[in-house]
Specification:
Order of helices and strands: HHHHEE
Number of helices: 4
Radius of gyration: 25 Å
Strand order of the largest sheet: 1-2
Strand content: under 5%
Number of strands: 2
Helix content: 55-70%
Largest sheet: 2 strands, antiparallel
Length: about 160
């Protein structure tokens, strides 16, 4: 089955890199701030955002990198066996699960939309006459209400 690609109104190159920038920003923030302040929120946000804008493979990769980052940071700060360290890890894991669920839901709705679009195009082709060839001018053809994208109704 073909994978449905998600599109956004923003430039794709910019949007594609936002989760990676959030991971790097979260790690840097965690390293340069005192111990009670952590960057796990940015790591968790990167998981959810990747689930919303990336393909499933890239979203999974982003979640794994975020998890590796939070594990490394909790080991580095020495809080891995404390409640705060466990909470940071659980936060990123749950955010990853949410991001992947969002990705799955968006992919499913995109497939449904593609199916509906295909049915609508088939119905339109069956009901409307074919447009004239480009070298022959159309006579007596008027769009239904300005939004007809294929063919036109004769009056």
């Amino acid at each position: 089955m073909d994978e449905v690609r998600m599109t956004t109104p923003w430039p794709n190159a910019l949007v594609r890199w936002v989760p990676a920038v959030m991971i790097v920003g979260g790690v840097v923030f965690d390293l340069v701030t005192p111990n009670p302040y952590t960057g796990d929120t940015m790591l968790a946000g990167a998981c959810v955002l990747a689930g919303a804008i990336q393909s499933a493979r890239i979203a999974i990769l982003t979640c794994l990198v975020s998890l590796a980052g939070v594990l490394a940071l909790t080991i580095h700060s020495g809080i891995i066996r404390q409640g705060a360290g466990t909470a940071e890890i659980i936060n990123v894991v749950l955010s990853g699960v949410i991001g992947l669920a969002v990705n799955q839901a968006l992919t499913r709705s995109g497939r449904r939309l593609a199916t509906v679009r295909d049915v609508a195009e088939s119905a339109q082709r069956a009901l409307l006459p074919d447009p004239p060839p480009p070298d022959r001018p159309a006579r007596h053809r008027r769009p239904v209400r300005g939004r007809a994208e294929r063919g036109a109704d004769r009056r």
